[in-house]
Structure formats: C-alpha cells, structure tokens
C-alpha cells in the first residue's frame, strides 16, 4: 500500500497525526489542497486500512496512572492452547497497553500502566493465576523520555 501513498497523502497523514480534530478546511489549507480532494484521500486511506482509527490520547499521570512497567515474560509453554489463553488474558487486562512476542531469550514484553507498585502486584498476581508463566521480570520506568504515536511518514 505504501507505494500508492503519494506526497499529498503523506502531508495529510502528518496533519492527522498531529491533530485529527482539525477541520477538513484546516488540513486542506496546510497541505496546499482543497477540501474535497483531502476528504476523498482520507476516506480512501480509511477504506484501504492506512488509517485504522482516530482516537484521543490521554495523559496517564493526570488520570492517576503514574507507574509504567515493562514486563519481560519467559515461558516454557509453547503450545497453541497456552498461547491462546495467554493472549485472551492480555486482551482482557486494561493495564496492558502493548504486548509483543519477541525473538531471543525473552518470549514476550508487555507495557503495563498502573497507579503504583501495589497495583502492579495485583495485576501480576492475577496474570500468574490465570496462565502458567516460567519467569517474569518487571522493570519500572523511572522517566519517560519519548512517547509518540506519530509514525515517520
């Protein structure tokens, strides 16, 4: 699909990533086009899956979610049934912001956002009660240096 994205599409995507609440008129003015072509391009990019959704980005600390943990998981279980149960558990846990399956010594890494260490322990206890895990290492982020949802288009 990226071969069908031209420079105007990229400019539109940059504007939407900066602030998706902008009006079509604002976006069109900023990218040097008119409203109708911009609307058509946005619609096409939604239909083709380039734009998957529009959402609001919230400040976790302002909501009392001050602790961010990166959770490294090693498992001795690699069967499909275990993996399905594990993924179901992760999908049900709102604390899990991201989950990645990795190559190498660590099988999975989770980004978990909670109120404090006690809330993390509650999450951890629930996780290990629902699915067998060989080893869990939790790393507390002391400072968020960079966080973005903006892709380099």
From TrEMBL:
<protein>
    <submittedName>
        <fullName>Lrp/AsnC family transcriptional regulator</fullName>
    </submittedName>
</protein>
<dbReference type="InterPro" id="IPR000485">
    <property type="entry name" value="AsnC-type_HTH_dom"/>
</dbReference>
<dbReference type="InterPro" id="IPR011008">
    <property type="entry name" value="Dimeric_a/b-barrel"/>
</dbReference>
<keyword id="KW-0805">Transcription regulation</keyword>
<dbReference type="Pfam" id="PF13404">
    <property type="entry name" value="HTH_AsnC-type"/>
</dbReference>
<dbReference type="InterPro" id="IPR019885">
    <property type="entry name" value="Tscrpt_reg_HTH_AsnC-type_CS"/>
</dbReference>
<dbReference type="InterPro" id="IPR019888">
    <property type="entry name" value="Tscrpt_reg_AsnC-like"/>
</dbReference>
<dbReference type="GO" id="GO:0043565">
    <property type="term" value="F:sequence-specific DNA binding"/>
</dbReference>
<dbReference type="InterPro" id="IPR036388">
    <property type="entry name" value="WH-like_DNA-bd_sf"/>
</dbReference>
<keyword id="KW-0238">DNA-binding</keyword>
<dbReference type="GO" id="GO:0005829">
    <property type="term" value="C:cytosol"/>
</dbReference>
<dbReference type="Pfam" id="PF01037">
    <property type="entry name" value="AsnC_trans_reg"/>
</dbReference>
<keyword id="KW-0804">Transcription</keyword>
<dbReference type="InterPro" id="IPR019887">
    <property type="entry name" value="Tscrpt_reg_AsnC/Lrp_C"/>
</dbReference>
<dbReference type="GO" id="GO:0043200">
    <property type="term" value="P:response to amino acid"/>
</dbReference>
<dbReference type="InterPro" id="IPR036390">
    <property type="entry name" value="WH_DNA-bd_sf"/>
</dbReference>
<feature type="domain" description="HTH asnC-type">
    <location>
        <begin position="5"/>
        <end position="66"/>
    </location>
</feature>
